[in-house]
Amino acid sequence: MMLQQCILRTYYVLALVLCISASEDFAWTKNEKTSFFYGTFPTGFSWGAGSSAYQTEGAWNTDGKGMSIWDAFAHKKGKIFLNDTGDSSCEGYFKFKDDITLMKDMKLNHYRFSISWPRILPSGLKNEHINEKGIKYYDDLINMLLENKITPIVTLYHWDLPQVLQEKYGGWQNVSMVNHFNDFANLCFERFGNRVKYWITFNNPWSVAVEGYETGEHAPGLKLKGTGAYKAAHHIIKAHAKVWHTYDMQWRSKQKGLVGISLTADWGEPVDITNQRDIEAAERYIQFYMGWFATPLFNGDYPQVMKDYIGRKSGQQGLGASRLPVFSPQEKSYIKGTCDFLGLGHFTTRYITQKNYPSGLGDSYFTDRDLAELVDPQWPDPGSEWLYSVPWGFRRLLNFVKTQYANPMIYVTENGVSEKMLCTDLCDDWRMQYFKDYINELLKAIKDGVNVKGYTAWSLLDNFEWDEGYSERFGLYYVDFRNKNKPRYPKASVQYYKRIISSNGFPNQREVESWKRKAVETCSSSNQLLAAARRKSQGDQEHAGMQKAWPVHDEV
Ligand SMILES: *[C@@H]1O[C@H](CO)[C@@H](O)[C@H](O)[C@H]1NC(C)=O
Ligand SMILES: *[C@@H]1O[C@H](CO)[C@@H](O)[C@H](O)[C@H]1NC(C)=O
After folding, report:
1. What is the mean pLDDT of residues 77-98?
2. Residue 444 lies in a domain
3. Top mutation candidate among 73, 75, 76, 77 for ligand 1, by most atoms within 8 Å of CB
4. What span, in angstroms and rounded, lies between the C-alpha atoms of 169 and 191?
5. Distance separating alpha carbons of residues 199 and 184, to the nearest angstrom
6. Residue 442 forms part of a structural domain
7. What kind and span of H or E run contains 47?
8. Closest ligand to residue 77's CA
């Protein structure tokens, strides 16, 4: 999933909230409130849950897997909250059969997971060494999903670049990644494509580019302000297009699958909808976020507003060329139309207002946009500090995609909410509310004519949340990370989501209103189980400590 907790951005939000909320009451939001819509999703709508390799698999050096940039990054001290790593995480590599049982119990139609590039190509390169044990793991996972009638939706790049490619070439700063990634993707099509029909090339390339190469909060941790993100994104877009063409030329007629990309974006709403400058600032926010990737893939080039703003600011800096790279005419036509479906990740919304940043003073992706982000202090803020629950933003974003990109086929690939740290309450009322409200706005968007085919709750399990370590829990299932068996416990939202799935939506008020109460009936007993298990494991630890202090001399 994505996390955009750039310190810079958080600062704007907090600072501006203070001054704005003092003078105004966010009166305009009152018009946004819409009533709940009872109804069902189209027949065949696909319900799922998601995960990614580094966040859940663990087994970081098992069975011949190579190092990824996330292994290297997390092993450095001071990069991840509490210096945690994904070394063992949920042990999903060993427990995938149990996890498929959980999915089956929820009656999921699909499961979205990612393939770890260095698990099957330890050096990153196809012509050097293929790790058959890694291939076998994904074979077994895919086969078991299909046996249980769960459709695999497979992401090829969920951020875990082979570390060797970072060291040798500079990772996504280097155009040579295009061919290396294409070789890896081609191998996946060859080995898994007879069974996998939904491929996602990249998950949230915005985050790869901005947090990996601009702010450095994510692996590989580079801080190439003002250039690194644009260059990485440029190569990622080319790599996506190449992989789409590879599939189209070599595999599509035989395998009959689809190749898309998964973009994550917040919605940006103008602070003052009567102010043209705010309206344009909000438009820029979205174009610099989603349009950066979607516009080349659907229309052949970067959004005009990005070319204008970055070009002008580069000129003011005295640079001879724009910091935003340029596609040649051949590249534009090669890239245009390379998206069979759009994967969409969405979590929250911001208010946007115009704000000028003079160039020459630390130009960056963020200052290039000339805007500031705000939040309404009245928005519910149940989990991660950046994640406010603003359901109506979801419907607007979906309608924006429909009108901007000629109504493409959409799969929602990520949507969900975390909980505060140390919260071990399995009766997650706020998550049930979040799913209810966001999925309802999705239903409204479908009634608006947006072409959405599936929804993926993020995430199946609590997992390694990147730089936040294990402190942010997005899972439907709680994972006790302190127990080395990593047991899973259902939160109440499992029951709630199950009812949405079995009803294919929200049938009627009387029924929907009973769901929360019914879901909470089971979670208190789960709470007790978890508490008992924790007491026991603490007891075991103390007992183990005693044995160390006073060894039993029975070996004499
Ligand atoms: C993480 O590692 C750094 C560097 O060794 C150390 O200063 C810091 O205290 C560690 N943090 C925790 C929570 O252990
Ligand atoms: C890209 O990798 C090649 C080696 O294949 C190297 O010669 C070149 O300097 C790299 N370029 C960048 C920008 O790092």
Report:
1. 97
2. no
3. 77
4. 27
5. 13
6. no
7. strand 46-50
8. 1
Domain span holding position 229: 42-416+455-464
3-state helix, strand, coil in the chain (%, to 5): 50, 15, 40
What number of other Cβ atoms are within 10 A of residue 518's Cβ?
A: 12
Domain count along the chain: 1
Q: What is the pLDDT of residue 3?
A: 38
The answer to whether position 240 is within a domain reads yes
Ligand nearest to the CA of 180: 2
457-484: per-residue pLDDT in tens?
999 999 999 999 999 999 999 999 999 9
Residue 322: which CATH number? Answer: 3.20.20.80
- Residue 31: pLDDT over 70: no
pLDDT in tens, 398-439: 999 999 999 999 999 999 999 875 667 899 999 999 999 999
In this structure, are strands 349-354 and 371-374 parallel, antiparallel, or unpaired? antiparallel
The residues, any chain, with a CB within 8 Å of residue 295's CB and separated by 6 or more, are 287, 301, 302, 303, 404
- 511 in active site: no
Q: How many angstroms is it from 390 CA to the middle of ligand 1?
A: 36
Share of the chain above pLDDT 70, in %: 90
Q: Identify the residues whose C-beta falls under 6 Å from ligand 1.
A: 77-78, 82-83
Listed ranges 358-362, 449-453, 527-531, 544-548; the one with the highest mean pLDDT:
449-453
- Ligand 2 pocket, residue 170 CB under 6 Å: yes
pLDDT at 85: 97
